[in-house]
Write a structure and sequence with these properties.
Length: 410
């Protein structure tokens, strides 16, 4: 990192001058705190253990953890962060700390570690921001809807089916998705797209059905020039991926499903009580989304990230508001409830890896079991988590990436 300059928000960390600047103006930082900040930023691809920070900043000198805590607090304050907000420097409970802000780097220093040391990995070899490195293009689906798609990284392709919610540009700056993109794009060419109705794709669209989503995936495959490739689907994107794999068995070499389901909540209701509960849940979602009720939106976010903090939920809510309109949010939720690929899942011909949080509060683990039972050549891996979308700071995230890496390497 020697000689590099790291930029995040309005800050610059100039390692050649050993200086932090805000909007071009030097910021005074206690030397130990600045050393700590430099080490965290340079190794932002992973959680840095406390012992490593103690060795790096204080060397052979014996100091207590209190000194580390003080330096960490000083470093956070220097970049406008706090221990309660943790927007730039996150605490990984009992593991260490990680710098998580979207960062660009210039200069001639060596790249950050390329080894697989943790689940948060840079999308490119030089550690530059994926948003700066990705290429965004546009194509048109059969009904004329403009679909935005992006590629980042190099190596064999991995296509990600779109899911709630997406924004090709903003995903790199939200803690909800940034570690997913960095992890999936490492040593691969990751192709992903914004589904119709959100992100950089058209919001005002003629069709808004499950079949339209599958058609859009077909359009992106052709536009990206893909021949045979592994396909990755998260949540309802998993059902879209299943449908595509059935339509085009010659195209999909391997299928990866994460937090996915075969049947939406209304379809899988087994009796009148469950059907009424599903209808009530959808009615509440309609009202909450159309009126952008903050209490509802926070509860909604907590279903995706039950182990998150209130700040995580607010960040997730803010991201959703930026990705689509309230009316489209309702349309998405209505269509999700009607999804049903249970009748075609048995037609998937490629090897399939199914990953699911054991205590997922948004999509019950029984849905993963149903997919595993219906897809012939499939394997099910249950992860120790309650989160529907895994965070970078839980042990399950490392296992998640390792399972995907091993599966694609077979």
């Amino acid at each position: 990192m020697e000689g590099d300059t790291y930029r995040f928000g309005e800050y610059e960390l100039d390692t050649a001058r050993h200086q932090l600047r805000r909007a071009g103006v030097p910021v005074h930082v206690e030397p130990r705190a600045l050393d700590l900040l430099c080490h965290l930023v340079a190794h932002r691809d992973r959680v840095v253990p406390k012992n490593e920070l103690l060795d790096e900043v204080w060397g052979d000198r014996f100091v207590s953890e209190a000194a580390l805590t003080t330096a960490l607090r000083t470093a956070r304050l220097a970049v406008g962060d706090t221990g309660s907000q943790q927007q730039l420097i996150r605490t990984a409970h009992r593991r260490g700390y990680q710098f998580v802000a979207a960062t660009t780097v210039t200069g001639g220093g060596p790249a950050i570690g390329s080894g697989r040391e943790s689940g948060v990995r840079p999308a490119t070899a030089d550690g530059a921001s994926g948003a700066d490195r990705q290429t965004i293009r546009f194509c048109r689906s059969g009904d004329g809807t403009r679909i935005a798609y992006a590629t980042v990284g190099s190596g064999p392709p991995l296509l990600k089916a779109a899911n709630w919610m997406s924004h090709l540009d903003l995903e790199w700056t939200t803690p909800v998705w940034s570690h997913w993109l960095g992890g999936l794009a490492r040593d691969r060419r990751l192709i992903r797209y914004d589904e119709r109705g959100c992100g950089l794709s058209d919001w005002a669209v003629p069709g808004f059905t499950f079949d339209d989503w599958v058609d859009d995936l077909e359009t992106v495959v052709e536009a990206a020039g893909l021949d045979r490739f592994p396909l990755f689907g998260v949540s309802q994107g998993g059902a879209v991926a299943v449908a595509y794999a059935v339509r085009h068995p010659e195209r999909v070499s391997r299928l990866i499903l994460a937090g996915a389901y075969a049947r939406g909540r209304q379809v899988r209701a087994r009796n009148e009580t469950e059907h009424d509960e599903a209808s009530l849940d959808l009615d509440l979602a309609r009202v909450g989304w159309l009126h952008q009720d903050p209490k509802f939106l926070r509860v909604f976010a907590s279903q995706f990230l039950p182990e998150g903090t209130p700040e995580d939920w607010d960040g997730f809510t803010a991201f959703q508001r930026q990705t689509t309109s309230p009316a489209n949010g309702v349309r998405f939720l209505e269509e999700f409830a009607r999804i049903d690929v249970s009748g075609i899942a048995h037609l998937v011909q490629c090897p399939t890896l199914i990953l699911h949080s054991r205590d997922d509060e948004r999509v019950p683990v029984t849905q993963a079991g149903e997919l595993a039972a219906r897809i012939p050549d499939s394997r099910l891996v249950l992860l120790k988590s309650r989160n529907h979308l895994l965070t970078a700071f839980e042990p399950a995230w490392d296992e998640f990436l390792a399972r995907i890496d091993d599966f694609l390497a077979e």
